[in-house]
Write a structure and sequence with these properties.
single chain, mainly beta, conserved putative lor/sdh protein from methanococcus maripaludis s2 fold, Elongation Factor Tu (Ef-tu), domain 3, Muramoyl-pentapeptide Carboxypeptidase, domain 1, six-stranded antiparallel beta barrel, four-stranded antiparallel β-sheet, 14% helix
Length: 372
């Protein structure tokens, strides 16, 4: 294993510079296993076989040794990343209608299907529900399409269309449009010009205004978001397996309180500017399992904790207990009465300062010397 060879090289180098007359010197080395950094730190230990004359001194020194207990359990890898909690999908909304803005909503307003987004020349632009953006006007003789179906579904939901919605603009469609126009305060024509309706798959929350009353209408009039809040965080491309859709994540809110979140989607990798330059990151979007936990928060920094289990019911050893063996492999110093004894170990996966023991003489409950 390349990591093991490097570790032994570090051991030989350290011994030339840190040797003491009465103790064996151990070294500090970084061991990278499966993208998780595990630090193997030097500790000074007593000789494993003290003479009778030295028993009293050994017992006294033994009290100063720092130990940890070998345990059995699950090995969990954790990744902590900074993210942002705020309303989802911010974007600008406007219209291709020409004219002057004569009415705008207040910031924070939630607009639902059938309601007014803003006014141009004292006529409202109306929000309707749908996945297909408005790309043409609606009038008799137009080519059938999904956008016609979408319009009829909205007119039906608003109580203006009493037939089964389809993709055809027919006499019933024109009648429903006139009925809707009269109720909405629009000119009654039986057809809808492009820009009069804005289709959105969700209700919209007005974030802020990008224009003022009296300005010319344009394609960016109000900044809007969806009404739900999400956490957005960027992960390294090598870490995206930790953030698969459906993964449960702990979200640490301002003040230290914790709440649960779920990964809803991963977006395409994108270049992100960081402290050390530009790097490729994967944007990850989380939803809060309890939306009320973020009710009074918007555009705030949070900490996200991603976790996955790498081994179950495993014998777990602190990495700081590891000693590199001159001939290869690893060992630990196990506490045995008032002395220590060296025990060779075989290792598996590393994560979060622990390693799975796959073989050797250790058992659950053993106490091993660790670096101070």
């Amino acid at each position: 294993m390349a990591n093991e060879d490097q570790l032994h090289t570090d051991v030989r180098s350290a011994k030339r510079t840190t040797r003491r007359p009465s103790r064996r010197a151990l070294v500090v080395s970084a061991v990278g296993i499966a993208a998780v950094a595990a630090v193997v730190t030097a500790v000074a230990i007593l000789p494993t076989s003290p003479s009778n004359a030295d028993n009293d001194a050994a017992g006294e020194n033994q009290l100063n040794l720092e130990t940890q207990t070998v345990a059995r359990g699950d090995l969990t890898e954790q990744l902590r990343l900074q993210g942002t909690l705020g309303y989802s999908k911010p974007r600008a909304v406007g219209t291709v209608l020409e004219g002057t803005l004569t009415g705008l909503p207040d910031a924070g307003t939630v607009v639902t299907a059938g309601e007014e987004l803003f006014r141009v020349n004292e006529s409202p632009v109306i929000l309707m529900s749908g996945e297909i953006p408005a790309w043409r006007g609606f009038e008799p003789g137009m080519v059938p399409g999904g956008d016609v179906l979408q319009l009829e579904e909205n007119l039906s939901a608003l109580g203006f269309f009493g037939f089964a919605p389809d993709e055809n603009f027919d006499a019933n469609t024109g009648y429903a449009i006139r009925y809707w126009q009269k109720t909405a305060g629009l000119e009654v024509t039986g057809k809808v010009e492009l820009g009069r309706i804005f289709f959105s798959p969700t209700d919209l929350r007005v974030q802020d205004l990008k224009a003022q009353v009296g300005d010319a209408a344009g394609t960016e009039i109000v900044s809007v978001t969806d009404t739900n809040k999400v956490v957005q965080v960027n992960v390294e491309t090598s870490q995206q397996s930790l953030a698969a859709p459906g993964t449960k994540v702990t979200v640490v809110l301002p003040g230290g309180s914790e709440t649960a979140g779920t990964v809803t989607r991963l977006d395409a990798p994108t270049e992100v500017e960081g402290a050390t330059g530009t790097s490729l990151k994967v944007p990850v979007v989380l939803s809060l399992d309890d939306p009320a936990a973020g009710e009074n928060l918007d555009n705030v920094a949070v900490t996200t904790v991603f976790s996955r289990v790498l081994g179950t019911d495993s014998l777990l050893l602190p990495v700081v207990a590891l000693l590199a063996q001159p001939g290869g492999g690893f060992a630990v110093e196990r506490l045995s009465g008032s002395t220590t004894e060296r025990v060779e170990v075989e290792l598996g996966t590393f994560a979060d300062g622990q390693v799975i023991v796959t073989g050797g003489g250790l058992a659950e409950g053993d106490k091993v010397v660790v670096a101070k």
